[in-house]
Design goal:
single chain, 12 strands, disordered N terminus
């Protein structure tokens, strides 16, 4: 009696994928950006990228279309597609793809915008665990107070600012960072908000991971069918 051995698919790294795609014009390891000759090259690359196994987060594996979308974003922002892929987030199967907040400030930096930050207000740490709506613990302690962050940059001699809400005014805090390192989380929100307000041409509607977590399906449920309607529906099938 013979036993068949199932072999795991080969996993390719980013450099291997780049070499296999002849239509990739150039790759600069220092910059990490790919240069594609046309859309067909992007399609071919995305198909190979989707087979990269552990080089991708689970929600992008074997998903050429999603890999193509991420690659197009990476091309627009001047990032390595694989590096950007690891900074993506999907809250549920079939849901939108979000990007870690650091991606937005990195995109600004690549575009020549250097943000600065200042803080106002105070943080008070409470010895009280934070839980989600389903009872899962988010953090072992609670950060509260009137702390807020202002992101700013001087563009053409004008200081452009974006001010966050305070910790107490922020109602949804699903990330543990809100309580473990609130200044860092406020900086992420300030950077993302600044990019949305002053460089929407660069962000082009990209969602953050926090926004994806907060999204809910607001489609109203279909009304329940009466027994007579169910019988009529079965008759039409």
């Amino acid at each position: 009696m013979s036993t068949e051995t199932q072999q795991a698919p080969a996993v390719m790294g980013p450099m291997q994928v780049a070499k296999l795609v002849e239509d990739v014009k150039s790759f600069d390891p220092g910059v990490g950006s790919y240069s594609f000759t046309d859309l067909g090259a992007v399609v071919k690359f995305a198909d190979l990228m989707s087979k990269a196994g552990e080089m991708l987060p689970p929600h992008l594996r074997q998903k050429p279309a999603l890999c193509m979308a991420v690659t197009m974003r990476a091309t627009h922002w001047g990032f390595d597609p694989f590096a950007l892929a690891m900074e993506t987030y999907q809250a549920k199967e079939g849901g939108p793809i979000g990007y870690q907040a650091k991606v937005f400030t990195a995109a600004l930096a690549r575009a020549g915008v250097r943000l600065r930050y200042r803080y106002e207000g105070a943080v008070k740490m409470l010895d009280k665990a934070v839980t989600s709506s389903n009872g899962k613990q988010i953090a072992a302690r609670t950060a509260t107070g009137d702390r807020k962050c202002i992101a700013y940059a001087v563009i053409d001699g004008e200081t452009l600012e974006y001010e966050t809400l305070t910790l107490d005014q922020t109602t949804i805090k699903n990330s543990p960072l809100w309580h473990n390192d609130p200044d860092q989380q406020l900086a992420y929100v300030a950077g993302r908000g600044w990019a949305r307000r002053y460089r929407s041409d660069l962000i082009m509607g990209a969602h953050s991971d926090d926004e994806v977590r907060e999204m809910r399906d607001v489609t109203p449920p279909e009304p329940a069918l009466s027994p007579l309607q169910m019988k009529a529906q079965r008759a039409r099938q």
